[in-house]
Amino acid sequence: MAKWENMLSMLWMLRSGRKLTAAQIAESLETSVRTVYRYIDALCASGVPIVAESGHDGGIRILESFKDTPLFFSSVELKALMDAFKFAQSAGYPYTEELENALKKVEHGLHEEQRNELSRQTGGLDVIPPARPPSIVPMLRELEQAEKEGRTVRIAYRKANAEHADEREIEPYGLAYDRNLWYAVAFCRQSQAMRTFRVDRIERLVPTENRFDKPEGFSAYAYFREQSEREREADGPMTVIRVEGEPETLNDICAHWHLRHYLLERTDREACFRLDVSTMNKYLPKYLMTFGTDIRIREPQELKRRIRDMAYEIAKAYEENPD
């Protein structure tokens, strides 16, 4: 264990308020009494009020004032905080700047050995962010503020493949992050129904003076889960689908926005799904054909037949004319 981690462990022992002897601390840390005294000198030099009392009822303790000091973190805890910041930054988290400032305050309280250890541990992980419009961060802040204040917002929202954005007034109930995209879950006053809006498709947002009351206990996560369960309702008999392929290709199939809900089992070379026959016949042949020979359908026979027939029709359409 690193020296500063031992010192941190000793601090937590002393924060309990009990008096401990150097021998007791040394036994707990599996080190020597001499080393314990070196730790005490280092901590005192850092401003930690440690008192060593001699005599029958003596021992080592920390003054009561130290209880008001900030929390201390282990090296793994610090690494987790720094790595979490990288993921938050990649996701477009709207308070990344504030989070970074908070972490700088934590780093400022570390001594040189801790900072060097933290740099060594966090230097090997990077998170590559996807491309996002620059307006998404202020948009997320405004939506969250509107949710807190119970204030409606008027948005210009462009649906996929639409030429123009539609104007609508919504009551934002919460934000959700799913598959690298941010969504606003809101009640749309035009349609008088709950809707989800991709935040990157909101071209303009203007707060209004209109107010709303959010349903008590509303959870954007619970709403998404409920919608997924509705989409998974079986339409007719169910069937098992087994797809064989390379791990990277199977990763893409298993991450499909709809198929991922039906995954039963996954190995390096095979993925097993269970869904209704109607959905399988309607969507899967065309979708799975896009993977070409990178995958092979093991079952059911009906799906294999449909893909084979579709491939035959495509090949036939591209046959050269005799003339």
Description:
This protein is of the alpha+beta class and 323 residues long. The protein has 11 helices and 11 strands. It has helices at residues 3-15, 22-29, 33-45, 75-91, 96-108, 112-122, 136-149, 220-231, 247-254, 277-289, 301-317; strands at residues 50-53, 59-62, 151-157, 166-178, 181-188, 193-198, 202-211, 238-245, 263-266, 270-276, 295-299. A hairpin with a 2-residue loop joins strand 4 and strand 5 (181-188). Helix 4 crosses helix 6 (112-122). The longest helix has 17 residues, at 75-91. The radius of gyration is 30 Å and the shape is extended. The model has no long low-confidence stretch (mean pLDDT 85).
Distance between the termini: 81 Å
Cα-atom Rg, whole angstroms?
A: 30 Å
Tertiary shape? extended
Count of beta strands: 11
The class by helix and strand makeup works out as alpha+beta
Helical region count?
11
Helix content: 40-55%
Strand order of the largest sheet: 6-5-4-3-7
State the oligomer: single chain
**Percent in strands:** 15-25%
User: Helices and strands, in N-to-C order?
Assistant: HHHEEHHHHEEEEEHEHEEHEH
Overall pLDDT confidence: 85
Low-confidence stretches: none
**How many strands, what sense, and barrel or not for the largest sheet?**
5 strands, antiparallel
